[in-house]
Amino acid sequence: MGDAKRKRGHFLIAVALASLFFTLRRPLFRSYQDNDTAVPPQCLSLRVSLEPSRDFISSRNSLGSDRFVQGTPPVLIRNAKIITGARNGTEIVFGDILLDKGLVLGVGYIPNALARLPNLQVIDAAGKWISPGIVDAHSHLGVHSAPALDGASDGNSHKAPILPWLRSLDGMNTHDDAYKLAIAGGVTTAQILPGSANNIGGQAFLIKLRPTAERSASAMLLEPPLTLTLNSSDTRPKYRHMKHACGENPSRRYGQTRMDSAWEFRRAYDQARQIKQAQDSFCEAAEQGLWDGRTPFPESLQWEALVDVLRGRVKLSVHCYEAVDLDALVRLSNEFEFPIASIHHAGETYLVPDLLKKAWGGIPSIALFASNFRKKREAYRGSEFAPRILADNGLPVIMKSDHPVLNSRYLVYEAQQAHYYSLNPALAIASVTSTPANALGVGWRVGMLATGYDADLVMWDSHPLALGATPVQVYIDGIPQLFSPATLHKPAPFQDVPRTPSWEQEVKDTIKYEGLPPLTGTSMKGTVLFVNVSQVWTRADSAAGVAPLLGSEDGAPNWQVLVERGAIACFTPANDVHGNCATRGYSRDAQVVDLAGGALMPGLTTFGSDLGLSEIMLEPSTTDGRVFDPLTMAVPSILGDSVIRAVDGLQFGGRNTLLAYRGGVTTAVVAPMGQGFLQGLSAAFATGAKNALGDGAILRSETALHISVHSGMLASVSTQIGALRNLLFSSNSSGPWSRVKSGEIPLVINVHNADIMATFLHLKHEFETRGGSSLRMTFAGATEAHLLAAEIGAAGVSVILAPARPYPATWDHRRVLLGPPLSRKTSVVTLLEHGVNVALGVQSDYDARNARFELAWAALDSNGAIDQATAMALSTSNIEKALGLDSADLMAEELVIYQGGGMFDFESKVIGVTSGCRAAVEIF
User: Fold this and answer.
1) pLDDT for the residue 462
2) Which of 85, 137, 342, 426 could be stapled to 365 by a disulfide with Cβ–Cβ 3.0 to 4.6 Å?
3) Which residues are in the Amidohydrolase-related domain (predicted)?
């Protein structure tokens, strides 16, 4: 007999014995029934709905929120554009909103009688947008804290694959530096999940992010289950929350196959099912008057939460990517009859929407990244069009952060990207407000702005779907969270919903090719005429960086531009029939491309990720691999004193590389992979090249020498700097080090800590004072560089900020300059003010495609200090100077073709590249 059948047989015997016992004791049980103790409270509680009743909500509206802080004054916000979340997210109310006792008392027209509350604070929104507070359905705030320290990381247990009895609350650090950052991005509610190392990682909890007087994790809870309730008068049952994970993460941790994982799930649920059946039999007998008041209710402290999953009393969040895992999950839900609230990461859900509709208990919501894909195999088919495709198939879409994978401060950016790639704007807003709230079982109190809802809202400086939208104020439970916020002036176009481009063909191709559509374009070798052109910027004068050739920043589409063999031959106003292009007779043979107000702009250069050396980061066979670090490793003798070159491991045609190319990045610089002290020599290559032998494929085989110096490595910081000192001052250094010492190539130091940077500035000064040549030095990463902006500028050191928007990830990053609304200036602006050659880099391969949006964001956050030319230089001339590239390396200029707008617009899309090197125009 198998284990499952044997256990089921034992259970049936136990039920039969219990039934006999109840029968023999019937008179005694009846006497208890006469005293109203016939049914135990556990059985009675199982009958109670977890959805709040109308009476409860009505009572709450009159009494106030359970999270109301006494002494909080009422607030009336006037003259706002309010996105309420009602009517499928489409309702927008122009008017006022009244907050009191932690609740919304009215939206739109507020009667004078209602607005005469004592101590009322009146705020004029002056036409600004207000949305519900952002709800992050997938966060590890507090359990993966910032800065990351060994003593403050509690996201995963490594005890076993099945751990439903663990609780994220028990590891939630209240001193995480990221709470205030998330609030500054408009996040008011978050689900704190255990990590995904286990098939069942434990129970999750909902929190409000505001600080509390109690300063405890428990005081942050929203809708705590009764098992945690400290207030004995609170008897209303509430949903639990739980995390499951399938696929690569638990398999990698425990050496499982997918078959092992499926069995672990089934075995766990069978255990829970047996307990549930015992409880049901017990309660059935008790309801028949067969309980003596003393026989204990059959339960297990370990398995009670999983039993509640089977009862539909848990909002289940499942980390699951691939179709094979989704299929197993749906079958599991039907075998054991439990609902799935949401599926997270969900990379291939858009390929199997009909399968997901077969999940037991209803359609799950799908929680996604906008563009963070391809880190591992199961994420390889992830698509930026997944939100649109899922919505078209009737599945609720959630955008989530997985903080700190993505800084939850910028969760709204995920919704913005989803909208850019054609998700309906109402659904995009709902994806970070009402949809996650509904999936988490709290959609009756958060995620919308209506009478009786929690007073959680965000006032924005621009439309929340506009790039760079920044909170002016954030309210949680009616309490303002930003004190003296640094506000920004955003141009008029950012006050409306962006008019995004059409992606209909791309959506069709994504489905047709199951997430892997062809990314190469069509080469046009002849003459191409671009019409309805608003701007052309070029880099003809490399010393001046980028400069406008024609048009203006107002983007009036008045020009025609003729391109021959990939280079601009002439241009003329659209209505000038006698212009300098007319004599070329372009009308006879030119292929015409309408840019609809678009532009020709310089190609961008990216640096900081492993683009070109890896295709799937966590699949070793798809990467060049990590280099040996001579400071901390035994280097094979066959290598001798060789310094590794990235050019020897370059891969062309990877999806991240081609998507970067299709996003306007024509050049990439990459250093050998590794986080040790000595990385090696970087290479510059053309992202659109087919292989290393193509014309202009490798722009420079050795651009700079790269090292990393960080705290927490195997060697101490002083040891790392001692090694560098020896290499710089030793008369025996040769090869690349001699070229660094002569000033031929730059030394690029991956460093974040300002104290370590200060030591490098001393070292540079010492080297040059001793009679050495000028040492070309660049700090990459450089989160704390703003603290030494004047000194870095005086020393002539370049800085490449990566990430472009800082985060206190480790102790070396902790002194961040956060930018609006938390600080008036950004690191970019501060460094530019001190004459630093500053550039923006990226950290992840997938993110290279978003370089142009980072430039726009940097300009928007500067309050006018960064103009269009300066913004473009951050990823063109500035980054190339920092990495040792010059105009000779770039060869013939490549211009990116934008249709519908310029480089910085959510309204535009890249449709091709003109390449003088390849003597062609490539259209995507």
Assistant:
1) 97
2) 342
3) 386-469
Please spell the DSSP secondary structure of 702-770, one letter per residue: ---EEEE--TTSSS-HHHHHHHHHHHHH-TT--THHHHHHTTSS-EEEEE--HHHHHHHHHHHHHHHHT
> What's residue 889's pLDDT?
67
Residue 303: the pLDDT is: 97
pLDDT for the residue numbered 384: 98
Task: Give residue 144's pLDDT.
Answer: 95
Task: Identify the pLDDT of residue 111.
Answer: 87
Residue partners of 513: CB distance under 8 A and separation at least 6: none
Which residues of the chain fall below pLDDT 70? 1-37, 230, 232, 540-544, 552-555, 577-580, 582-588, 887-889, 891-892
DSSP assignment of 149-215, as one string? -GGGB-S---S-SB-TT-BGGGG--TT-THHHHHHHTTEEEEEE---SSSSEEEEEEEEE-S--TT-
User: 570: how many CB neighbours lie within 10 A of its CB?
Assistant: 16
| Sequence-distant (≥ 6) Cβ neighbours of residue 331 within 8 angstroms | none
Q: Which pLDDT value is given to residue 18? A: 41
Task: Look at residue 579 in the predicted model and tell me its pLDDT.
Answer: 61
Q: How far is CA 519 from the centre of its chain?
A: 24
What pLDDT, on the 0 to 100 scale, is given for residue 602? Answer: 95
The Cα-based distances of 510 to 352, 416, 516, 518, 912 in angstroms read 13, 20, 7, 9, 19
DSSP string, 343-366: EEE-TTGGG-HHHHTTSTTSPPEE
CA–CA distance, 86 with 89 (Å, rounded to integer): 5
User: If you write DSSP's letter for every residue of 224-272 in order, what string do you get?
Assistant: --TTT---TT------EEEEEE-SHHHHHHHT--HHHHHHHHHHHHHHH
Contact 896, 533 (CB under 8 A): no
Element (H, E) at 592: strand 591-602
